[in-house]
């Protein structure tokens, strides 16, 4: 067995369905297995997906194991020479796995490989390449110097800002959203550290790989990661869990971290408190109808074959969507300008007409920051913000 793909799911059955559809194309010609660990979802994920993907092995947990424990359980059951840890809210282009495996085959010291993760607006997610969060690297990120100087090899080392995006590069941390691992290296590193429930386990694993003499690489192969677009990174929960995980890592590996734990904890509290206040203000504005984010500001451009467009017209009418409908195919791609108006414009591709690789490439070339990716397949419209099902 060449490849084992492991996905941990929790209440995102429609995003996972789309991910598995892209995987079915990406593993063609590869001796591969796909294992989904369901972390006690409440949305009927397994019952919905199992009949659609009979070749996928579904493992159901009776409670939420967390990311690290769930992945480790599947890793121990897997048989592949390479193991891909993949998030359920991703789309993988048809050639990505073949090219990544070929790179690993030609680089015997490569323990882990990551790729270019695109957000739904076509921008690259900074999390695609990261540095080890030493106390100073973490400090630069927390005080905003990383964001202020995004291309600085010093201040932006957390995102390895000094590296080019268009060529393979050695990096320090591979994101757990797409982490292709050599099985030998993964077991030498001791699998994922279960001290981390969510966030930080990919940093720990990458660090252990480096300590064992393996290399971590970034490859300029595009995938879509909705989380880069949809996660509220200013939310109280995200700030608290993310920076707490960073503190756990520093305390594990840097003796000086005990000296800075108090100011770091104070910074975590301040950031979390600021996020909480922001959420409260946003809630009050929404309650009084003063929020600027209204659903009717969004517009949609559906592009694909006639059957898909007919279904999408009915979906749009039943959900009061402001929409346009464009007939198109890879060989006959029309030129159009979406009308964003005062809100986001979603370009929704028919995934039965377009390859996922084509969609990702077109997204990068066409989008200018005003648009966001959407997909439509078998009655389901998916964007970074919502899922709408056609009941016709």
UniProtKB/TrEMBL annotation:
Question: How far does the signal peptide extend, from start to end residue?
Answer: none
Per its UniProt record, what InterPro entries does this chain match? Glyco_trans_2-like, Nucleotide-diphossugar_trans
In terms of Gene3D superfamilies, this protein maps to: Spore Coat Polysaccharide Biosynthesis Protein SpsA, Chain A
- All copies of domain Glycosyltransferase 2-like, residue ranges: 4-154
Q: What is the protein's given name?
A: Glycosyltransferase 2-like domain-containing protein
Which species is the source of this protein?
Answer: Segatella maculosa OT 289
